[in-house]
Batch of 3 targets.
Target 1
Amino acid sequence: MSTTFQNAPDERVDWGASLPFFVLHLIPLGALYTGVHWSGWVIAAVLFYVRVFFITGGFHRYFAHRSYQTNRVFQFILAFGGTTAIQKGVLWWAAHHRHHHKFSDMAEDIHSPKRGFWWSQVNWILCPKYNETRWELIPDFAKFPELRFINKHAWLPPTLLGGAVLLLGYWITGTWKGAWGICLVGFFLSTVPLWHSTFFVNSLAHVFGKRRYATRDTSRNNLFIALLTGGEGWHNNHHHYMASARQGFFWWEIDTTYYALVCLSKLGIVSNLRQVPERMLNRHLIKHGATDLGMFQKHWERAVRALADAQTRTGELAADQRKALEELVAATKAKVEEIAKLSSSKEPAVEV
Ligand SMILES: [Zn+2]
Ligand SMILES: [Zn+2]
């Protein structure tokens, strides 16, 4: 994957501080010593899918986009449940995500794959520059003291969950060795694919898949990521109309997070699930010839340079002509980014 944007000198992984992140990938190997009771695998599957819901239905569709409403108690449950996925604090997560929608795939986008795959997948999370919550982007939820508390003490929910799984393991097996086997698989092992499937939405869902809508970013619709993440793989749909509680816009676009939200609304726990307006379903369709600014931005510069390189080699392009072309490319690039920014300011990540 080629990189379009270079990182600033202070955009680097802090390898020392990130050690726990890497160590957690290896901790489940301890199960080779302890052995695992079959229930450990069941707990792993349950904790994977339940926490996927808390991230997608909670952190993403509720806290970042306010695509539905709920009461204050369930709001806290969503925040607490999502935090057990060990993806930092709820306000940190949602505020950075709003920033992503504001600047998708522009130079300001913190986790665009245009900075390289690994940067968009994990490295940006391990960069100390982005440790702080961007309070200015999430004033609507920052006013709740219980959310600020859980955002600050993001270690607490996963610690309580891990401890609960350990005790459950002891209750099931009657030994601490058996309990650790269940905890290592049920809690720790399930966390690793949970992390990476969530992160795929930032990386692969901007690289592989189909584009239905012309957006100013590189988002794609990807069934594989949708199945892994409870429907978040319909990312091109989502960038097209981010206020919607459903990301699979059509019945064949599987979106289990939305199905769960519908069930919760039938129980009266959540309400006002926002839908995609009919006019938006058919707007900016690529098959109808809509101008695809996102793809144009991604490819045009490289295409011009490749052509210029070939013409320089054959002598068709003299040095002074090449210099003039480079200046034109730089000026055009600035203009295109300006146009993309203008369109982004019209599309807030959240309609408060
Ligand atoms: Zn995106
Ligand atoms: Zn989003």
Target 2
Amino acid sequence: MPNFSFTDLFLVCGCTIVVAFLLSIIVDWGLEFFCAEHDKPFFSYGYANHNGPHTWRNYYPECDGKNQSPINLMTKKALVVNDSDDLLWFNYHIPPSCIKIFNDGQTVLVRAQWPEALWPTIICGPLNEQYGFHTILFRWGPEDEEGSEHTVDNRSYAMELQMVHVKKGFTTPLSAIRSGAKDGLVIVSFLFKLMPVDNPLLDRVVYNLWRITSPGSNVTIPAFPLNWFFEPFCSNYYTYNGSLTHPPCSESVLWIIQPEALAISSRQLAEFRKLMSHDGRMTSNSRPVQKNSQDVYFYSSN
Ligand SMILES: *[C@@H]1O[C@H](CO)[C@@H](O)[C@H](O)[C@H]1NC(C)=O
Ligand SMILES: *[C@@H]1O[C@H](CO)[C@@H](O)[C@H](O)[C@H]1NC(C)=O
Ligand SMILES: *[C@@H]1O[C@H](CO)[C@@H](O)[C@H](O)[C@H]1NC(C)=O
Ligand SMILES: *[C@@H]1O[C@H](CO)[C@@H](O)[C@H](O)[C@H]1NC(C)=O
């Protein structure tokens, strides 16, 4: 039997105690780190059960606000503005130098580049300022019959194309929102109705969707002027003060909604539903209509 002196024993035990103490600190720290992560899970909004629209208000209080979007437009209740100033569109016919499409995990984004002087802008109508084009995004649903976020007299449309514009003086939607301006953003919306044949003007985007199937991907596509998608309109549209339809749901958006629907086919819609989010296939990315009662205006030409 080895002959341990008291000092030896003390050294061995002392070291063991120190090592055990250090180990316990590391384990504690590890547990704390691990548990902290579980106490405050990272929230990434989406449209699945665990992160869908009914959960957003828990993480983004503004989603519970009084001027939320989308809404059901009740055409009979809209306040008619007669002989309104025409809404004016500049440079939407100019082909950009480059167009990119993105899968951001929630939708398809279309972004483009022009020389500064040729940047597409809108002005007049209900706008007090000039607004520059920033992004187009799409909203769709699990079935061909429902996909739009806004409804008109309770009618849902197959898809909604939303053109986000940023107030002059700001470069991104986020900077416009952070400024606190109630009119930092203007979103012009187009609804789509189902047609038996493809809409060829959507094909540059639709044909390239398979290249951005995975969330976070992007690709450059052949450029085209934005007015391929739609006919610029001067009057006969709805407008109201609302919010972003996704977190952070900021109430700094003037919506302009063109009630004349564009066309899309069932086959084209199906291509959008093949995209992947972090929660599986993007079968739907529409927030349901919100029950608040903003004034809705109809800007009429006569
Ligand atoms: C706008 O015109 C319509 C029909 O011409 C009329 O009923 C309405 O009272 C007018 N509204 C205003 C605010 O002048
Ligand atoms: C829309 O639905 C609401 C609630 O279900 C109903 O009160 C209203 O009459 C409907 N409006 C139209 C134009 O169908
Ligand atoms: C676009 O995708 C490429 C990889 O293909 C990536 O390097 C780049 O960061 C992406 N751009 C943006 C703005 O997300
Ligand atoms: C939106 O709100 C602003 C004030 O913040 C107001 O001047 C404007 O008339 C409102 N527009 C509509 C369409 O309600």
Target 3
Amino acid sequence: MKDLRDYVKYLSSRHRLLEINEEVDPDLEISAFTDVAARESVYESKTLLFNNVKGYSIPVVTNLFGSMSSVKELFSNSYASELLGSLGSLKSKGKISLVKGSKMFLDSKPKLVESQLGRYRRLNGLDELPITRSWPKDGGKFITWPLVITESPKDGSTNVGVYRMQVYDSLTTGMHWQAQKGGAIHAKEAEEAGKILNVSVSIGTDPHNMVAAVAPLPVGFSEFAFSGIVRSSPTVLMKNGKYPSVPANSEIIINGYVDPKEKRKEGPYGDHTGYYSFVDPYPVLHVDAIYAKKDPILPASLVGQPWHEDAVLGQFLSDFLMPVIKATNESIVDIYLPPEGIFTNMCFVSMKKRFPGEAKKVMFSILGLGQLSFTKIIAVFDDDIDIRDVRKVLWALATRVEPQRDVQIITNAPADSLDPTSSLPAFGSKMLIDATKKTREEGYNREWPETLSMPKDLVEEVERKWRRLKS
Ligand SMILES: Cc1cc2nc3c(=O)[nH]c(=O)nc-3n(C[C@H](O)[C@H](O)[C@H](O)COP(=O)(O)O)c2cc1C
């Protein structure tokens, strides 16, 4: 898919697009429509294209990734999934083709072309764009699908992240990068060097770039290389003067700068926790120039109490990248971040315990891993528990946890700044729940009772009879 418009056409061909031609208000109404669309089944939820936005000639598209089918299809032909899926066997059997793997990495390098800004028209301010307001008590309009691109003042590496941007006036926005995210780390480096940080923002590009910007990749691993890998063709970036290079297929480009010393109140904003976020100080983006394609589409996202498109993306990406975590911790069988746990607040793990205390080792390793370090509550189960089945999870929590022995609280730890429960922003506690069956070596002085089950062949026979009796 060469750009956003191409993706929208693709969705239409799959009957996953609803075009709305009657007039809609970017102030709440577009979001209210999107909220209704998100209530549909997670596989069928439709993308909405608003062609007639009150007061604007630019269409708005929402719920681009609300359908799990679409997101899975975007990644289906990718060698990256084959590679990730083979990580386990790579260690033991070396099944993966290393030639293919090295070619993939070489091919993934973004291709840099000359600036094509001449094809764009220059806008005077952000008020020329149909930027939406999501929830009634939001502090204003927010750009909700910006790919914020920064370069490390230290080593020049590029970071791309989606960080919402509150519109303060037509040339000033907030920059809501959380302290642990790539953009914030670059701003910190700029502060240490006594410099401002030039920022470019791409709004609306091909879907692989958009999904890559959300992926929790390690700092230093290029999101545009990742999108090249999953797209199976390199990302094309265009030079952008003193600002970081941007995808050459961007619908809208904003160039500006962040002065790391400057902070301004940001929010409230109806967030993916299901609550309004706190009003906290965040950096400010000063806009130097805005460019738009001749006929751009503006993508917007609505988040709220799960499920919305961020939940679909989060669920997909955590499953897609899980082999990396499993490869570093071979006793892990499955990891599940339930969207209802807001991804960062709850994590279930199943494992094959091999030595006393290994469940704790697994929990500690999760707390040390990238964005998983935000996790507030981790529960570890034996591998007979399907951690994606909430009934099994509750049963194991109720029957395998002795609170005094199996629950630990870790205090004064980094936390997700969006968590409304922490007393201080981005700083809080963790709960570790060991819901594995305890062994004698772990101080359990009784014989763990056997789990009830019928002989397998008897079950199969009775099921056959059952089907006959029912038919
Ligand atoms: C629609 C949407 C909005 C998001 N808004 C923010 C945000 O305002 N601040 C933030 O830190 N992360 C936000 N995220 C999550 C980041 O994009 C995600 O953590 C990403 O991995 C960050 O990239 P980085 O690791 O390169 O910083 C958002 C994700 C989505 C899908």
